[in-house]
């Protein structure tokens, strides 16, 4: 069974997903930062945006206690909206990790049951 929700007519991007992840210079974190930077060039440089060419598809998969896929949400045309640093490393952080958030917009979500 599949359910689809899509924006129609004048596209208005009001559907978002927010990722919270450990900040850092590791490969996975760098990929997210590079993707964001490709889609949002510096205003000072006046560079062109690669937002239209950099849209991605992704899935959120929920598993049951036996490790079997129970539900899947497929997101179409994901692209980064805002990126924020929500915490940083400091002497007083008490072992907490630095975290960033990345808000993702999408044009369509398909729920597979």
What do you see in this structure?
The chain is mainly beta. It has one domain. It has one helix spanning about 25-40; strands at about 1-5, 15-20, 55-65, 70-85, 100-105, 110. Strands 1, 2, 3, 4, 5 and 6 form a six-stranded antiparallel β-sheet that branches. The longest helix has 13 residues, at about 25-40. It is flat and about 50 Å long. The model has no long low-confidence stretch (mean pLDDT about 80).
- Helical content band: 10-25%
Element pattern in H and E: EEHEEEE
Number of domains: 1
Mean pLDDT: 78
Portion in strands? over 45%
The computed structural class is: mainly beta
Tally of alpha and pi helices: 1
- Give the biggest beta sheet: 6 strands, antiparallel
* Overall spatial form: flat
- Work out the number of β strands: 6
| First-residue to last-residue Cα separation | 6 Å
Poorly predicted ranges: none
Give the radius of gyration: 17 Å
How is this structure best summarized?
The chain has 113 residues and is mostly beta strands. The chain has 1 helix and 6 strands.
Give the helices and strands, then pairings:
Elements: E1 2-6, E2 16-22, H1 27-39, E3 56-63, E4 69-87, E5 99-105, E6 108-112
């Amino acid at each position: 069974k599949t359910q689809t929700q899509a924006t129609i007519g004048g596209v208005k991007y009001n559907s978002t997903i927010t990722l919270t992840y450990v900040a850092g210079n590791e490969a996975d974190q760098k990929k997210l930062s590079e993707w964001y930077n490709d889609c949002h060039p510096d205003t000072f440089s006046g560079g062109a945006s690669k937002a239209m060419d950099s849209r991605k598809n992704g899935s959120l998969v929920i598993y049951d206690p036996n490790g079997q896929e129970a539900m899947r949400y497929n997101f179409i045309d994901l692209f980064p909206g805002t990126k924020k640093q929500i915490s940083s490393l400091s002497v007083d952080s008490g072992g907490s990790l630095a975290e960033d958030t990345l808000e993702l917009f999408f044009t369509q979500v398909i729920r597979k049951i």
